Amino acid sequence: MARWAPQETDTMAAIAAEVIAQVGTNRTVVGIDGQDGVDLERVASGLVDGFQQHGVSAMAAAAPSSDVDALRADLVAPFRSTGEGPGILVVHGHGVLAHGAHRLWRWSLWVEQESGRLERRADVKIAASAVLDVTEPEHPRREWNDAC
User: Are 92 and 47 in contact (CB under 8 A)?
Assistant: First the structure.
């Protein structure tokens, strides 16, 4: 028997709703990190689409590095200074939940896949607001075993 799994758009819209409820939408910056080999750009794009389903303006940006000062100067500060009102920036890249950098985000997502899923997980569980399993990219699953 086939197991039911939500579509990518439904999962990402649900995660977007969670972000909106927890931290709001006023110049909010979200960080997405994950295991090596995970398509973080796809996840960020899906999350942007999820925010747009809720009528919230959002955009994605690739992290130039995991350096805290560079992330703050190149992405976070310019986004927050571009105006007031609703808007979300989704920053994706390996290392953006590293020690120090994780404090830049109002909300964060760790993305993993079945292969090697425990790799680095203990280190980021504390930093991540949520964990997403993309073993099946068309049917990602929000994991509820994070450290909330």
Answer: no
